[in-house]
Amino acid sequence: MYSKNPIDVVIPWVDGSDSEWLMSYSNHANEAGRDSNSAVRYRDWDNLQYLFRGIEKFMPWVRTVHLVTNGQRPAWLNMEAEKLHFVCHEEFIPSDCLPTFSVRPIELNIHRIPGLADRFIYFNDDFFVTAPVSEDRFFHDGLPCDMLALDAIQPVTPREHVLQNNVAIINKHFSKWEQMRTHKRDYFCLRYGRFLYRTLALIPWHYYTYFFSTHLPQAYLKSVFEDLWSVEYDVLMETTRHRFRDITDVNQSLFRYWQMVTGRFYPRNMVTGTSRGSVTQVTDENANTISKMIRQQKYNIFVLNDCEDIRDFERCKTLINDALQSVLPEKSRFEKIYKSED
């Protein structure tokens, strides 16, 4: 079932309702950085099991799922599952940087996870696979599939600091026009369709302004992380030391940009075609609509972002989880009390 070059999945997770975690969070609250550290980031929708069910059912070619936590274990998790690697933060993050209440130190160091495949896909815990997704959606001829379309940062909220920091690192190391000449096919790929217009419009700018992002599961080469750490150790360690989000941080998107700019990817339109994804912020007003789309399996991958303004969280949670249950009713081997059909 597996290819000669295995592909793993990495998922960071935290139970923000855990009393011990809340106490630790409170004890370190005075270290909170100058960025959004809202409690919504840690709210538990109690649906991680559906992410595992979707991977098992619709991505059977995945070799190992690395679940990364501070030691917390979902009550339903089958620790003996063949494809599961349960990873604690202290196994790959320096001890003097722990505990951490930001996902960014985790993201920057995931290449250090023991046994991680050279090719892996980074998932957030609010990503759900609800229809078949092929290996070729993420990797083609051994390279991560991606779309190098230039874009402009839209400063809607203060959270755009991290994007600016990422792009500044890219501009420090690369000449935009030189890279565009060297990797013409990566920038001017006709498969990008309408997104090619963004790149054409931004050619006159001497520096990179931003890169289009789908905010879907992201394919990576572990070597990209190793290379970037070798040249920007101090910057990456600064973020790793931040227990909370800070406006000086960089995040895992920096590795994606580096991966694309150095030509280590296969150009593909990641928005249209097969294995489409939907990125939606769940609100009181659209929860019913999202629930219907999940049940209809309108997209192969759903990204369901939490919203700080949800008034009736329990209602939204029930609608979404009931929809996921309708598509993925059978327990996976990652869950306890799994009964084999054999």
Description:
The chain is of the alpha/beta class and 342 residues long. The chain has one domain: Spore Coat Polysaccharide Biosynthesis Protein SpsA, Chain A (Alpha-Beta Complex), CATH 3.90.550.
Which terms would index this structure?
342 residues; alpha/beta; Spore Coat Polysaccharide Biosynthesis Protein SpsA, Chain A; 5-stranded mixed sheet; 3-stranded mixed sheet; 12 helices; 11 strands; globular
- CATH fold-level topology: Spore Coat Polysaccharide Biosynthesis Protein SpsA, Chain A
Strand order of the largest sheet: 3-2-1-4-8
Order of helices and strands: EHHEEHEEEEHHHHEHHHEEHEH
The CATH architecture would be: Alpha-Beta Complex
Count of DSSP strands:
11
Overall 3D form: globular
- Number of helical regions: 12
Question: Layout of SSEs?
Answer:
Elements: E1 7-12, H1 19-27, H2 48-58, E2 65-69, E3 84-88, H3 103-108, E4 119-122, E5 127-129, E6 139-140, E7 143-146, H4 161-173, H5 176-182, H6 184-187, H7 196-202, E8 218-221, H8 222-231, H9 233-241, H10 253-261, E9 266-267, E10 277-281, H11 287-295, E11 301-305, H12 313-327
Parallel strand pairs: 1-2, 1-4, 2-3, 7-9, 10-11
Antiparallel strand pairs: 4-8, 5-11, 6-7
Helix pairs in contact: 4-10, 11-12
Summarize it:
The chain is 32% helix and 13% strand. With 342 residues, the protein is α/β, with parallel strands linked by helices.
